[in-house]
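Tokens as discussed.
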């Protein structure tokens, strides 16, 4: 009964803030989750095989399910949902159900305004049901991308680090390889370079493994002109690790990032695109900013946050501007959302 009353109060607040009910499917094609979210969801999915061989899963969260419903049914772009998410938990593989209430703004037109709208609506809902001792942890995935793109290293390394940021274990392995320069074998490189000059004498239109010789040579030529010394790799890794240790009050973030840029001889304006985070100062809450946060779900692209009551996480969410395109939209559609976990209230 208590849970029902809390839900009704939260839903009323969602409606008052202009959100419209969406009822996404309970069953999803498991590929949607496997290909578009992180290891956390993959390990917790509850799946089964249909007679036609298709693997289905119970929705582990309602964001992906809501996005699929939005694309299929052309529903309202400002939605709320009330339902259950299903995940495997514990070393023995026990199952549990999470009752979730959430909101999404799909097709977000004003990113800064809509980021603030989602978080403020969640906080206002917590206030309506008299949640106390609220603390907020925020991060911004796009700041990491800005840092990586500002560092002087081969494009292939930038792509690797950004692509695998959501996989902390493998990401650490990449940093070790970058630091020790172990992705380049000198003997192999010299042999390939010799072969490069030999192939320049061949017919440039000839195909090898589906690629023309001119294309192969073009790519290798880029690698030759894009060298990286051991010293550079070590320095770059040191900067990345220092960035991922940033953990400060939001009120001090501007100074912390400015000092970080100066200390590492980076352009001061590399972190200019974090107005959504700065805008959260208006919330007048205890907010901590953590750079090494939001990496357990692959589809996040910008601001990420968690709301706590004491030590209990009561809500979480973030921006995911590329998810809808990966689910079948013709182009990227800006989107942001959050879910309240009733279990912890």
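Sequence:
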């Amino acid at each position: 009964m208590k849970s029902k009353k809390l839900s009704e109060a939260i839903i009323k607040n969602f409606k008052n803030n202009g959100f419209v009910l969406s009822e996404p499917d309970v069953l999803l094609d498991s590929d949607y989750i496997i290909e578009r979210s992180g290891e956390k969801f993959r390990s917790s999915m509850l799946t089964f095989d249909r007679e036609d061989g298709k693997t289905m899963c119970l929705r582990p969260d309602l964001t992906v399910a809501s996005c699929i419903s939005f694309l299929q049914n052309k529903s309202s772009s400002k939605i709320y949902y009330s339902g259950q998410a299903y995940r495997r938990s514990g070393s023995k593989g026990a199952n549990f159900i999470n009752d979730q209430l959430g909101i999404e703004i799909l097709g977000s037109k004003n990113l800064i305004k809509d980021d603030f709208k989602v978080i403020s609506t969640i906080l206002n809902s917590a206030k309506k049901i008299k949640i106390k001792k609220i603390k907020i942890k925020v991060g911004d995935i796009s700041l990491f991308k800005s840092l990586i793109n500002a560092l002087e290293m081969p494009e292939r390394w930038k792509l690797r680090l950004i692509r695998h940021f959501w996989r902390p274990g493998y990401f650490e392995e990449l940093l070790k390889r970058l630091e020790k320069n172990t992705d380049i074998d000198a003997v192999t490189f010299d042999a390939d370079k010799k072969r490069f000059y030999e192939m320049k004498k061949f017919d440039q239109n000839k195909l090898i493994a589906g690629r023309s010789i001119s294309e192969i040579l073009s790519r290798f030529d880029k690698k030759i002109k894009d060298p990286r010394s051991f010293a550079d790799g070590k320095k770059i890794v040191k900067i990345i690790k220092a960035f991922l240790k940033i953990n400060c009050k939001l009120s001090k973030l501007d100074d912390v990032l400015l000092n970080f840029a100066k200390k590492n001889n980076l352009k001061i304006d590399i972190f200019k695109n974090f107005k959504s985070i700065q805008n959260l100062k208006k919330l007048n809450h205890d907010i901590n900013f953590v750079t090494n946060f939001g990496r357990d779900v692959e589809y996040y692209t910008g601001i990420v946050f968690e709301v706590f009551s004491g030590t209990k996480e009561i809500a979480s969410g973030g921006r995911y501007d590329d998810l809808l395109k990966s689910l079948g939209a013709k182009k990227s559609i800006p989107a942001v959302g959050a879910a309240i976990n009733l279990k912890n209230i």
